Amino acid sequence: MTNKIRFLEEFINCFLETGTKRRNFQNTIGNITSQINKISRKQFDKKLIFSEEEVIKAFSINGYEIMNNFGCEFDWDKFRNGTILPETNFINVKTPKLKRLISATYKSAKSNWNPETIVEVYELKIAVKEFWNLNKTMLN
């Protein structure tokens, strides 16, 4: 197991939660990888880019289920309507937590946010910085 996978495994363990086993566009492996790369690019000093294989391996080590819909009959009309998903892998992760982490990374508090949301985003910013300071030695 490489240092990047070990670092990503620890990141997943600290910040993400398992969700239901529902497949949707938000929990495709490509989308999850993109969101994790956005967070790591902005928050961590080293410019980390994780591949889909590394993300799959780290999630499976943490006990997340990797699902797919290979072999399903594909219809372009249903795809355009949003009733059928592309053939890809999915991870049972709660995507709102990832979105909150991205909000903590890229956005400042808006006037229409709830006070609880502002506090949660602020705490996530602090937690991500503390995580980086504690675990950046894993990447050496």
Quaternary form: single chain
Radius of gyration: 16 Å
**Share of residues in strands:** under 5%
Regions with little confidence, pLDDT below 50 for 5+ residues: none
Total number of distinct structural domains:
1
Mean pLDDT over the full residue set = 82
Largest sheet: 2 strands, antiparallel
- The proportion of residues forming helix, as a percent range, comes to 55-70%
Given helix and strand content, the structural type is mainly alpha
Note the main attributes of this structure.
2 strands; mainly alpha; 140 residues; globular; 6 helices
Write a structural description.
The radius of gyration is 16 Å and the shape is globular. A two-stranded antiparallel ribbon has the order 1-2. The protein contains 6 helices and 2 strands. The chain starts with a helix and ends in a 5-residue tail after the last helix. It has one domain (3-139). Helix content is 55%, strand content 4%. It is mainly α.
Provide a concise account of the structure shown:
With 140 residues, the chain is mainly alpha-helical. The protein has helices spanning 3-15, 29-43, 52-61, 76-81, 95-106, 115-135, and strands at 66-68, 89-91. The chain has one domain (3-139).
List the helices and strands and how they pair.
Blueprint lengths: L2 H13 L13 H15 L8 H10 L4 E3 L7 H6 L7 E3 L3 H12 L8 H21 L5
Antiparallel strand pairs: 1-2
